[in-house]
Amino acid sequence: MRMLSFFLAFFVVFGFFFVIEESLSQDELTKRHRIVTLSPHLAEIVYASGAGDYVVGVIAGTNYPEEATRHPIVGGFSGIDFEVLISLEPTVVLAWEQGNKAADILKLERLGIRVHILSASNLIDLENQVYDVSRLFGTEKIGDELISALKNKALSFDDGLGNDPHRPVFIKIWDRPIFTIGRDHYINEALRLCGLKNVGEQYPFRAGSISTETMLLSGADSILDLTGAKLIDDMKTNSIRHVDRSSFMRTIEGDSELLMRLGPRFLDALEALCADVIKFEDGI
After folding, report:
1. CB 42 within 8 A of CB 51
2. Residue 268 pLDDT > 70, yes or no?
């Protein structure tokens, strides 16, 4: 009887320490990654890939999912707030190659902070970003499921919607001054799936400002408005009096927030744009 009591006591004590050890392991697991994202779309990708619990800081403008809005802001369009970012003690910072300042990334690396740079310059990068993030943080299963869903969504698009040649459009992402999209941007590839062609594809920049005259003489017969607001008519008569404005001022409005972020919801916004293009072509 005494021997039985000894073994029972042994297993109770051993089991107690096993539970403590397992609990500590789980606690350490949640603390092994501390992620800061330097673009709103990267925060979306991290959460959609199953690694949202590791996020400790985000960039200004991050508004999805709701959980991401509760984290400290580590900077904005003008650059990074290094004091705030360092105070969060990140184990890795996710940066956007085409969006973050090279000088800021270099400074982070010189401070000994690990930076993982992700590219978003073409549509395949949407899947590549999910793949990289899920491998970085051990959420491969969730990441692979998301990639599969994105592939299926992409296959549902009919290239150009049967429209050949593509309708030439001018992309407007800001009003004053006029900002547009140029070359090497994923939106150019995406628009072809909706039967559109960005007339600015050959401009010598990814995104930049141009004059009103350049826009008017671009050859576009319509404007894709991605400003997030109603088109502001800043075209003064004295600067364009030689142009017949009525021939090209038809406007297609897109979801600027989603179309300007190559994140998990991008293809949904592109699908909606394609549907609007069909209505536009039919004059609805």
Report:
1. no
2. yes
Four-residue CA torsion sign, 100, 101, 105, 107? negative
Coil/strand/helix, residue 207? strand
Question: Tokens in use for 91?
Answer: 């184990």
- Whole-angstrom distance, CA of residue 64 vs CA of residue 44: 6
Contact criterion met (CB below 8 Å) for 36 and 94: yes
Backbone dihedral angles phi then psi of residue 86, each to the nearest 5 degrees = -65, -35
> How does pLDDT run across 38-81, given as a tens digit for each residue?
999 999 999 999 999 999 999 999 999 999 999 999 999 889 99
* Residue 115 φ/ψ, nearest 5 degrees: -120, 130
Domains of the chain: 35-155 (3.40.50.1980), 159-282 (3.40.50.1980)
Where would I find the H helices in 118-265? 124-136, 140-155, 186-192, 212-216, 256-259
pLDDT digits (tens, 9 = 90+) for 102-111: 999 999 999 9
